[in-house]
Amino acid sequence: MMPGRTCPLGYRYAPTVFKRVAEIQAETIYVVGGLYGNRAALDAILALAAQEVVMPTIIFNGDFNWFNTDADEFFAVNTEVLKHTALRGNVETELANGDNAGCGCAYPDYVDDADVERSNEIMQRLRKTASLFPALTAQLAALPMHLVAAVGAARFGIVHGDAESLAGWRFAHDSLHEPEHVAWLNHICDDAHLAGFASSHTCLPAFRQFSASGKARVVINNGAAGMPNFANTAYGLISRLSVHPVQENCAQYGGLINGVHIDAIPIHYDMACFHEKFLASWPQGSAAHQSYFQRIMHGPLYAPAHALGLVRAPSVCA
What we know:
This protein is of the alpha/beta class.
């Protein structure tokens, strides 16, 4: 199987790992997945956090690197992220690994081979930049793959991929809303005393609430903090878990479970700044430009109704 489609054994873990004391206890948590090296989005997230009634715990749950192949941008993004709580995604993991797994995305079959090859090329360039910062890269490689967070009286698993793998796709929009996954999720949540999970990895957001065994459950996938997630939009998304309600009209969608507000929050970053830095590293004809520029400019062929499972989404990933 070609690099980029495989899931290394080191990415896997048993769902029983979530049966532990929570590492994080907070009134409000921001889960920031898929920053993708967008420093403008990082600045916007920090500014938003400063406006909260109680300063949130910010958890960067992987793939905060991607487009930031410029050395100054790589250093700045990672230095700031490591001031907060962070998990490694496949990108951070593969920065310190060999090239056997390519980008480490474990892409499903519906993603075109050309897209996979371009992702592997992006990873090769990013790995060269990371080699300039061996101490920083070692810190990224040592980050955990998952954690447990307590918000109010509810416990949540925080992951990059899904409940069994750093690069898992079972929290993707096209899997999460399949009925057979309810039993799987309910068993894991029951066993680990979780109200649900927050993830990213799949690059597109998803949100699902369900009840099983008389208990409410939730999974929220923020998609990408550093790129548009919906057609004809120009903002990223993060997940907010809090005992405090979000300000009126500030959430894309959300719900309430066990007294905890769980919302997808738009991140309105400086698009002009992001475009300028993206094009400086990834001009027309480059791998990232071919794979991502249309999404950056116009958003993917995806809508909030797809994220909520109200309409079946097209097979898109970027």
